[in-house]
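Exercise 3.2. Students should predict the tertiary structure of the chain below and write it as structure tokens, then compare their answer with the key that follows.

Predict this chain's 3D structure.
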Amino acid sequence: MTGGQDLPTGPARARGPATRANSTADSTANSRADSRTALAAPEAGKPDPQPIAWIGDPSQPPQRGQWGRPDQLSLPLDDRGLTLADGLFETLLVEQGQARLLDAHLERWHRSAALLGMEAPPNRQGLQPLIAATLERSQAGGRTLDGALRLNWSRGSAPGRGIDLPAAGEPPLLHRFWLLFTPLQPGFRPVTTWISQLERRQATSVLSQCKTFAYGQAIQARREARSAGAEEALLLGTGGELCCGATANLLLLIDGTWLTPPLASGCLPGVMRGRALELGLAREATLDPGLLLQPINDSIKDPIKDSIKDPTNDPITDPINDPTKTSVSAALLLNSLGCRPIRAVNGQAVGAAGQPAGDPGWASALAESFWRSLLA
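Answer key:
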């Protein structure tokens, strides 16, 4: 990738401490556990692997930075990312010592920065030494840990209060970059969901096209879902159609074809969603929420085989306006860190007949099979 900033790692220094869903209580507890850091299993007698962070100092020419734990490093209190959520981030899967789909994440990062009038974020050439150093520092027992690598790009510190950006001719803001690596394993556990009645994605907002720091809507939607006894939230678009999950894209398996809401619904252009479309494993369709509130389909006998069916061979009318004539065989919440099958929506089971919603085996296998095919 061209453009962006090159980032020398600089010396490594550490700083000092500075209606309800039918969901069981244990499934909600499991969800809360999953929402926390899912650390890789430590070796006997050794402490859990810890997150690693690096933050750059934009006032240094060339930019230098500091290593430490996330609770050791800090942002200036006037950083617009902190005060206004004025920034972008990307979350990448690190697996077997590789940052998976790095170029696709950087392309979205750069595209989003341009849309929001920000300076170009670091490019691949500048990031590679930092990523390599991060993976080296994350080693445990001589092996590199798998995990989530979050790349953060803030518009930087503001000279005064308010939301205004520098006028033409005024010095630009010095953007700030930092990263965070958290050991974890990809997740494929089935979840119960709740369609939010309070929050909707805004299809016409440019922010819906970007992965910004502002996650208040997702937090409130998930809070609503938990209050309803579910584990995760589904959000509708401004037109009332299905859009996405709180932190993932949505896919439905209908008549052997994976369908995902179009960007016009207000969903984020997820990297894994983009891969599914690029590889021909899914296609876009406007999806009525009634599709997830219908009786289960008994026509799917092998969901893993059907999950890779060529959608061009079995077209479905788009948009789907009559959910009474169409039923969903499976539903997934997809992002770079995993693929979670939806086992219930608003208390109603989702899945193929003969595969009980309480049995996660078939659904998890379906989800992981589909997710892995996007990384190939």
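Discussion points: Residues 360-375 form the longest helix (16 residues). The chain is about 20% helix and 25% strand.
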